[in-house]
Amino acid sequence: MKGMRWLDAIVAVAIVALVMVARGPTVWAANAGAGLAGTDHDFTLGGTFGNTTVGLCTYCHTPHHAKSTLLLWNHTLSNNTFVWDVTKTTAGTDYPSFTGNTYKGPTAKCLSCHDGSVAPGDLGWFDGRKPVGLNTNTIPSSSEYSVGFGGSMSGNHPVAMPYPYGGVPNTYNGVTTGSAFVPADWLTPPTGKIQLYNMDSGDPIAGPGTGTKAGIECSSCHDPHNKQTDDDYFLRGKLTGDGADYICLECHIK
Hints:
This protein is mostly loops. It has one domain (1-254). The chain is built from three helices and seven strands. The protein has helices at residues 2-23, 107-114, 218-221; strands at residues 81-82, 98-99, 161-162, 171-172, 175-176, 197-198, 214-216. The chain has a three-stranded antiparallel β-sheet with strand order 3-7-6. The longest helix is centred in the first third of the chain and has 22 residues, at 2-23. The radius of gyration is 21 Å and the shape is globular.
């Protein structure tokens, strides 16, 4: 009997190990919300970014000679013009068109890496110098970067467009909520950690009463700094499930 208990324990451990292998690596997800260190945005870990030692923050931001004063952005912005494969939502809201190197919303920063048009090492540095050992000429393939490749946002959740905050139409990035939208289908404001943005200032909207010209960006659902995440892909809600913390149900009432 004692031997059988040991056998049962060994089998249980083996099953857990197989489940973990099947799920794949989740190195940073185990510490979701703990901070930037150790996540997929921690470029101090090396990998494809050459042999240059970089700071935790300074691959994307730098205090001097940044590409842009706004957020002290350190990476070259994409010059793609991003469009969807349809012109309007079912509620009649126009899908936006915006150009990466002129659009002021945070989505432009996300797409400067994730649309695959800009080499990872195409960035500034302290005193305007490039890091040593980074290949600034290699542009990633579409298999490595899955959003906005070639400027196509086809099949992707809309961004840079209004959120019907307060159950009324809003205008954001020159786009106004369509007249056929159903207020009862939306949580206003969204629940959980979903982040909306103000078109006038570009700042995150803090809470109720500040929702005019409210819009959604990539960082509405993803926190690139991992401070407000709950699951993989830097998500501000759960990737699966059907509860209130499920990412889709934090905005949509279904």
